[in-house]
Amino acid sequence: LRARYLIACERIPEAMALIKSCINHPDISKDLYFHQALFTCLYMSPLEDQLFQEVLTDCKSGIEIICNTEKEGKTTLALQLCESFLVPQLQNGDMYCIWELIFIWSKLQLKSNPSKQVFVDHCYQLLRIATNVRVIFPFMKVIKDEVGEDGLQICVEICGCALQLDLREDPNMKSLIYKAIAHFLPNDLEILRICALSIFFLERTLESYYTVEYLYKCADEEYNECTSSVQNRVRFELLPILKKGLFFDPEFWNFLMIKQNCLALLGDKA
Question: Among 231, 235, 245, 250, fewest CB within 10 Å belongs to which?
Fold first, then answer.
């Protein structure tokens, strides 16, 4: 109660002294209120930039503090707190609580500024500092959910950028990106076939081969820009990126040749 009173009166140095004493107490420190109150004091003081240094190491506790701060109507502080947890996680490549943090961050960012373009720009800024390519999936999820139809095209572009990274040590991740692209563009037979072949080359499983066979037995379709989910520019930038993952260019082969080469790669499984 005393800490709340001092904060309400904006007697921040006194409040911080009291709160830090409580945090240093082995029993009282278990109450997350005092950690939340410390962030509030830092936000209200000239020492605001210390937020990143004072942040708790446990993201689960951090998420609870962020949500409690938001419930009190302090959206700007909650957003800054969220970023103070999220940014180090992205820089360290740590996936612990990353889905929850990105989801909460997206809601707070849009509440703070409803502009979808600003939201996308901030997503790109955070993606640039990320060291683990797997964070593209939670970011694509929030972009697709929050931005609407344009979000799908942005997600396809993010996948294209990710495929240009060196993923030789992580074939599973590369396969997941191809699957994501196929999910985003379910009506583009040419891209579906290339993705299916690329996944097969990475996984070499009967299941992935059956997908290739099914797609190549479908009747050929002419690409129609009017019915496409993405702009023509994005699609034609994506095609050469996708083809880099192929062992051969299927454009010049009929299905019989593709089947023979795939079966040879399957080996005993064939």
Answer: 231
Residues 21 and 53 sit within 8 Å (Cβ to Cβ) = no
Which residue from 161, 179, 175 is spatially nearest to 123, judged by alpha carbons? 161
Query: Distance between CA 261 and CA 80 in Å, rounded?
Result: 54
Asked whether the beta carbons of 201 and 247 are under 8 A apart, the reply is: yes
Burial zone of 79 (CB within 10 Å; 0-12 exposed, 13-18 middle, 19+ buried): buried
pLDDT along the chain (270 residues), means of 10: 90 89 86 84 66 62 90 91 92 94 98 96 97 97 92 96 91 96 94 95 94 93 82 92 82 85 86
Domain count across the chain = 1
CA distance linking residue 253 with residue 124, whole number of Å: 39
Range of the domain at 42: 1-55
Please compute, for residue 248, the number of CA atoms within 13 A of its CA located in the half-sphere on the CB side.
13
83 part of a folded domain:
no
Token pair 């502080």 is found at 77
The predicted model scores a pTM of 0.84
Task: Give CA–CA dist 23/196, Å, rounded.
Answer: 55
Please check whether residue 146 lies inside any domain of the structure: no
| Nearest residue to 160 (alpha-carbon basis) of 213, 230, 98, 253 | 230
Q: In the numeric block, which tokens belong to residue 143?
A: 């972009």
Distances (CA, A) of 239 to 118, 146, 236: 28, 27, 5
Cα of 206 vs its chain's centroid, Å: 30
